[in-house]
Design a protein that fits this description.
Helix content is 38%, strand content 17%. It is an alpha/beta fold. InterPro entries: Ergot_Alk_Oxidoreductase, NAD(P)-bd_dom_sf, NmrA-like.
Length: 284
């Protein structure tokens, strides 16, 4: 009853692997680059290379029955669909998909990105759990860490929106339940949020108090964000998608998640996370 974790050494994949190992569930990493945590079995796997699809099912000592789908492609379905079809034939019992809480990833014909894979799993009548987290707390380091270290600033288009950032550990905890005991979940499409509803100016204030130096929030327009993402090498369609998601937040979509019966509230708050990771934001 091995769980195949795609995406190599991703944050949620590593955290999930640790929980599975602690409970005695075997883990196999599928990685395009070969970068996986020490001590885990791995196999070359690339959604853009169908010749690697059989690999996970031929690793000695592993019978893959669960697959954790972590997708980095903007339009993943054409690449992922053939693998899902093969995995079903190979005996996979359940797919756990990391999707998004964004309404643009809602299941249906107008879905985007991972939501299209979610829709396919549902249309095929397969056993699946679609995890729908809001913004990762870890984005504070990945997306804003450089700006905080270099210029003491957080820059995005979210000047007024309040968002419940969710930590990787909380996402991994729900992913573990989706594999080990799915009956503990309230539904098969849980929305995952953190315990704190904060604006980015409020987050900047937390950084100020934690780091002992003034961190400010510098708002930019949606168009400025779109252009900025393109300068970082983000493809145009994906840059537009990300800018649109930030714009959605201004209307309070994350605040509304608190009232959604499908919502699971995590344990790790933004304040706690910033305190724990403050060394990552030491001034350059």
């Amino acid at each position: 009853m091995t769980t195949l974790i795609t995406g190599g050494g991703s944050q949620t994949g590593i955290a999930l692997a640790k929980l599975l190992r602690e409970s005695g569930h075997p883990v196999l990493f599928g990685s395009r680059s070969g970068r996986v945590p020490d001590g885990y079995d791995s196999v070359k796997f690339d959604f853009t290379d169908p010749s690697t699809f059989d690999g996970p099912f031929a690793v000695a000592g592993h019978k893959v029955e669960y697959v954790y789908l972590l997708l980095s492609l903007f339009d993943p379905l054409p690449h992922v669909k053939p693998f899902i079809d093969l995995a079903v034939k190979k005996g996979v019992k359940r797919f756990v998909l990391l999707s998004s809480s964004s309404k643009r990833a809602d299941k249906g014909p107008n879905s985007f990105v991972a939501g299209r894979v979610h829709t396919y799993l549902d249309e095929q009548g397969l056993d699946y759990v679609a995890l729908r987290p809001t913004w990762f707390t870890e984005n504070l380091s990945r997306n804003y860490g450089f700006g905080i270290k270099q210029w003491n600033v957080i820059q995005n288009s979210l000047s007024t929106a309040r968002v419940p950032l969710v930590a990787v550990d909380d996402i991994a905890s729900v992913a573990f339940q989706a594999i080990a005991d799915v009956s503990k979940l309230p539904n098969r499409e849980p929305i995952l949020i953190g315990p704190d509803l904060l604006s980015y100016p409020e987050i900047a204030e937390i950084f100020t108090k934690t780091l002992g130096r003034t961190i400010s929030h510098s708002p930019i327009s949606k168009d400025e964000l779109f252009k900025q993402l393109q300068t970082y090498g983000v493809p145009e369609l994906f840059a537009q998608y990300l800018a649109d998601i930030e714009e959605d937040e201004i209307s309070g979509v994350s605040e509304a998640l608190l009232k959604n019966p499908n919502t699971i509230i995590g344990k790790v708050g933004a304040r706690e996370w910033i305190e724990k990771h403050k060394v990552e934001f030491t001034a350059a």
